[in-house]
Design brief:
The protein is an all-beta fold and 124 residues long. Helices cover 0% and strands 50% of the residues. The protein is built from no helices and 11 strands. Strands 2, 4, 5, 6, 9, 10 and 11 form a 7-stranded mixed beta sheet that branches. It has a 4-stranded antiparallel beta sheet with strand order 1-3-8-7, with no helix packed on it. It is globular. The N and C termini lie far apart (40 Å). The mean pLDDT is 95.
Amino acid sequence: QVQLVESGGGLVQPGGSLRLSCAASGFTLDYYVIAWFRQAPGKEREGVSCISSRRGSTFYADSVKGRFTISRDIAKNTVYLQMNRLKPEDTAVYYCAAREGATVTLHELDFDSWGQGTQVTVSS
């Protein structure tokens, strides 16, 4: 049974950092793309970043490029999202999602397994 569990969210001041984790079980990351999405109150869910575990390819939304870094630890079956220089507009529930394959994408409908989400709040 495919399961994704996010952790690492919390409250942080503008300019601060957080590292989110997405622990996968029921499958190995080797031939999956893992993505991070986020949804702010009153807004649609948007793609943030993704990584192809096999190729190591990554992709970032323009809004986070240069501030966020996605990585994976195959041995721990975990994907991370390092978020630096956080802004109030980064406030959202962050979800990780998985799809089989090797092509990076942030199309929400391409992903069929989702975690429950972790809240990130950026506020002074």
